[in-house]
Amino acid sequence: MRIHELLPTQRNEIFLQIKKSGLHPGAFEWYEVGSAFTNGILVPQLQYSDTKFVFRFDRHGDRPWSVYSPAETELTKLVRGDNWWHTEYAVSEWLSCLKREVEAPDLWRGIRDNKAMFGGNIGSKLVSEEVFTRDERLRIATSVGQIQSFAAKTLKKDRDRLAFIEDRLQYIVESSERLGRKDWMNLTIGVLTNIAVGAALAPDAAREFLQIAASALGWVFQGLPLLPTPLR
After folding, report:
1. Paired sense of beta strands 63-69 and 2-3, if any
2. Parallel, antiparallel, or unpaired: how do β-strands 77-80 and 54-60 relate?
3. Using H for helix, E for strand and C for coil, what is the string for the chain?
4. How far lies 75's CA from each of 52, 55, 213, in Å?
5. Span 65-81, pLDDT tens digits
6. Residues whose CB falls within 8 Å of the CB of residue 168, separated by 6 or more in sequence, listed in order
7. What's the chain's Rg over C-alpha atoms?
8. Please, what is the angle between helix 159-175 and helix 181-198, to 10°?
9. Which residues pair with 48 in a beta bridge?
10. Which of 31, 116, 170, 213 gets the highest tally of CB atoms within 10 A of its CB?
11. Considering Cα of 7, then 11, then 14, then 16, what sign does the dihedral take?
């Protein structure tokens, strides 16, 4: 079986493109796979980590073809080129799309994880649909105030992001005045997840923010009859 290989200098150029993209070259592996166009030919394929995201340096006749995933608006894209420079451009486009996808948060998983963090009562038939009492609403406002204080200390130099967080936290407080308990719980999980993503918090900062929120509001989600304690 014939093997179509890249030149060492071409592989080096790909290496430098990966570094320029902000991804780590060590997360990529080279393989030889069958051509998508010509039987009996093996072509180089670059795969990212343990994902299904790949770039195949294919050939069809005497023309280079780029087959890669992910693409800008689709899972897989095929691009015909006339020379190596076209292939290099396709690699650059692929790396941009790849970085976007691998760094994007899984919002659906975040919702599931956050529900577990806040307690297992959400969705339970034991959770009442009754509205909160006046004392409970006041306590929710106090608990949300603790979360806001933490955000203010963490983002005191970033007024725009802090304003965004304060606005969303106020929405949580206002919602407690009109929603039943179960609906409020689900809304609150969604809003807190939205804050972590919308404020572009770093992963560690987002995790800490949600842990602080879970500590402050745990008495609602877990039904704990405890007075709120100051956050450290």
Report:
1. unpaired
2. unpaired
3. CEECCCCHHHHHHHHHHHHHHCCCHHHEEEEEEECCCCCCEEEEEEEECCCCCEEEEEEECCEEEEEEECCCCCCCEEEECCCHHHHHHHHHHHHHHHHHHHHCCCHHHHHHHHHHHHCCCCCCCCCCCCECCHHHHHHHHHHHHHHHHHHHHHCCCCHHHHHHHHHHHHHHHHHCCCCEHHHHHHHHHHHHHHHHHHCCCCHHHHHHHHHHHHHHHHHHHCCCCCCCCCCC
4. 10, 12, 36
5. 999 999 999 999 999 99
6. 191, 194, 195, 198
7. 25
8. 170
9. 28
10. 213
11. negative
pLDDT in tens, 25-84: 999 999 999 999 989 999 999 999 989 999 999 999 889 999 999 999 999 999 999 999
**Beta carbons within 10 angstroms of residue 39's beta carbon:** 7
Amino acid at 85: W
**Look-up: residue for tokens 């299904």?**
52
Helix axes 134-154, 203-221, angle to 10 degrees: 170
In contact, 215 and 231? CB cutoff 8 Å:
yes
- Lookup: tokens for 156: 């005191």
Other Cβ atoms closer than 10 A to 64: 21
pTM of the model: 0.59
The distance from CA 182 to its chain's CA centroid, rounded to whole angstroms, is: 26
